[in-house]
Amino acid sequence: MATSLFQTIARSAKAIVPIKAWTRFVPQIETAALDQLHNLSTMPFVHSHVAVMPDVHHGKGSTIGTVFPTTNAIIPAAVGVDIGCGMCAVRTSVTANDLPQSLKKLRTAIESKVPVGMAGFTTSSVPKANVAAWDATLKTDFERLCSMHPSLEKTNNMLHLGTLGTGNHFIEMCLDNTPAQNVWIMLHSGSRGVGNKIGTHFIDIAKKDMRKTHMLQALPDADLAYLQEGTQHFEDYVFAVGWAQRFAFLNRQLMMSQVIGAIRDTGDLPRDFTTDSFAVNCHHNYVQKEHHFGQDVYLTRKGAVRAGLGDLGIIPGSMGEKSYIVRGLGNKDSFESCSHGAGRLMSRTAAKKQFTLADHIARTKGVECRKDEAVIDETPGCYKDIDAVMKSQEDLVEVLYTLKQVLCVKG
Predict the structure, then answer these.
(1) Residue 271's Cα: distance from chain center in Å?
(2) Per the residue annotation, which of 160, 188, 283, 340 is the catalytic one?
């Protein structure tokens, strides 16, 4: 394993635990994000320390790119509203030589097969495989969840299975760095509308519960409102968040199947192409029970991937940049975690002010993707240098494959 690369951030006067940051080769952490990290370090139930990934940036509840264990409590806003958001990637037998000169037909086929943006399926268009998967794995527990929290019933749930979503969610075709340059299909999505509703619902409950006991105003940030173990709302949240994480995992599986079917049907690729056993499906916004530094804890990874010894993960760059298939090194100080991507350098509003359509077209040269003003807030310049991010966490993961995007579908 490489020499440990974390640096300890100077503690605030009220800090209870230290902050260890893997940010040696990336830009300095912005003030707003640093304030959030200091606030988190004052929470009495955070165990051992807070781990900060190199893609760290300001977020809701806590910084994105942060990992921390808690005992007897969970902070719903720190888990976030895109519960179970993550990545899925499969390697195909298609190589660079098999690709047509123009990839526009492939992109159009994917966009017509997979609902993107706010869209979901309709009752008449939803694939039978999606309905069967919902009925077999999610329906019963969702009905139980709705019996406890009826407002969750009126959400986009089953009809959002196998759909992409908005913002930085994407579907890509990439070439790897092997001599054959195999094509990989990679996608990024989470628990969609129903996960968002679950997240916001329990964030509100945590605030209301703490307001009743006059504890909310004592927090350094209201978004650090937490649910205490042993309460009914805590147990309900653990059940709900576990369900949403299963939804997100299945969403990516079904979407991947739809994408493979879409590109196969174009006739632009060898019809007998196969996908091999090398496949990865991992969360990067979630909470689960783990054991760290002598304690059973609830570990929150907000914008971070599990990187236990031998764990496979995906670290995507921005559209038009490189991405990485990695294997975890099991670094204990990072709570066996690594970054979930490059990490934003600026807000979406700032990006739209700084970059022009011409900038976006230049930075995505050679990639079949949208080249319009609506996606400027996702242009590569909005994100940190992925090479610097990877250099900052060489003690967390080893790179197995480097991927270069040739096609990108954005939400």
Answers:
(1) 32
(2) 340
> Do 166 and 117 touch, CB atoms closer than 8 A?
yes
- At 30, list the tokens: 């912005």
Helix 232-265 to helix 192-212 angle (10° resolution) is 160
Q: CA–CA separation, 370 vs 349, rounded Å?
A: 19
Kindly list the distances between the CA atom of residue 160 and the CA atoms of 90, 191, 281, in Å, as whole numbers in the listed order.
22, 8, 18
Q: DSSP letter at 239?
A: H
Strand order in the sheet with 50-57: 7-9, 19-21, 50-57, 64-70, 295-302, 285-292
Alpha-carbon span 262 to 153, nearest angstrom: 31
Q: Pick the closest to residue 183 from 111, 243, 245, 260 (CA basis).
A: 260
Percentage of residues in the chain having pLDDT higher than 70: 100
Report the C-alpha gap between 162 and 280 in whole angstroms.
17
What would the two tokens of residue 385 be? 């240098």
Average pLDDT, the chain: 95
Q: What is the CA radius of gyration of the chain?
A: 21
How far, in Å, CA of 153 to CA of 174, rounded? 38
Contacts of 157 (CB under 8 A, 6+ apart): 142, 193, 194, 247
Widest pairwise Cα distance in the chain: 65
Q: What is the DSSP letter of 320?
A: T
Pairing between strand 227-228 and 73-74? Answer: antiparallel
The helix (run of H) or strand (run of E) holding residue 391 is helix 386-391
Q: What is the pTM of this model?
A: 0.95
Helix axes 128-137, 232-265, angle to 10 degrees: 160
Q: State the pairing for strand pair 19-21/50-57.
A: parallel
Q: Is 340 a catalytic residue?
A: yes
Question: Which of 148, 171, 137, 120 is closest to 238 using CA atoms?
Answer: 148
Q: What is the C-alpha to C-alpha distance for residues 169 and 276, in angstroms, rounded to an integer?
A: 24
Instruction: Write out pLDDT tens, residues 203-222.
Output: 999 999 999 999 999 999 99
